[in-house]
Amino acid sequence: MKEVALVYATMSGNTEFAADFIEEGLLKKGVSVKKTDVLDADSDDILSYENIAIGVYTWGDGDVPDDALDFYEDMEETDLSGKQFLLFGTGDTAYADFCGAVDRFEEMINEQGGTVVIAPLKIEESPEGQEITDTVNHGAAFGDKIS
Ligand SMILES: Cc1cc2nc3c(=O)[nH]c(=O)nc-3n(C[C@H](O)[C@H](O)[C@H](O)COP(=O)(O)O)c2cc1C
């Protein structure tokens, strides 16, 4: 059975809300999902999966938020070759670096040899209307790509 570790960072709930729709899309494809708030995450456990979905909000000036930093730094020290990633994030287009933390993760994953299999999904604050459908479809598309 296909399995995905889905980890998300959230402060005010937007990214957690989006993570629920990513999970919905994966479940539609029959994927088993282990969903974890990054604050409760054991990096070794998450990084033992071949397929990993990461959702993150952006803090500061395009920065990875503090609550996701330990996980980010653990990934930076891991050989990610052979692993497939889905990235999504919520942010605010009023900031110069919209969803910059998603880009920070993508750059690091590429450097560590991992593969981001579909273009990251960047959501304005909390997903609404069509964005909800897009988020479910993003999860489903990952479910189709992985083995
Ligand atoms: C101090 C502060 C800095 C932020 N910096 C950025 C930023 O650089 N880029 C961006 O896209 N969003 C930025 N945001 C917006 C948040 O990422 C956005 O509200 C996000 O949806 C919060 O997610 P959460 O509800 O999961 O915590 C910032 C918000 C705050 C309060």
Automatic annotation (TrEMBL):
GO MF entries:
electron transfer activity; FMN binding; oxidoreductase activity, acting on NAD(P)H
Report which superkingdom the organism of origin falls in: Bacteria
The answer to whether keyword Zinc applies is no
Xref: Pfam families: Flavodoxin_1
UniProt xrefs under Gene3D superfamilies:
3.40.50.360
Keyword annotations of the record: Electron transport, Flavoprotein, FMN, Transport
Cofactor(s) recorded for this entry are: FMN
Which SUPFAM superfamilies does this chain map to?
Flavoproteins (SSF52218)
The family database entries (InterPro entries) matched by this protein are listed as: Flav_short, Flavodoxin, Flavodoxin/NO_synth, Flavodoxin_CS, Flavoprotein-like_sf
Which residue range or ranges hold the Flavodoxin-like domain? 4-147
Function summary: Low-potential electron donor to a number of redox enzymes.
Family from the record? Belongs to the flavodoxin family.
**What protein am I looking at?**
Flavodoxin
Q: What organism is recorded for this protein?
A: Salisediminibacterium beveridgei
Q: What is the lineage of its organism?
A: Bacteria, Bacillati, Bacillota, Bacilli, Bacillales
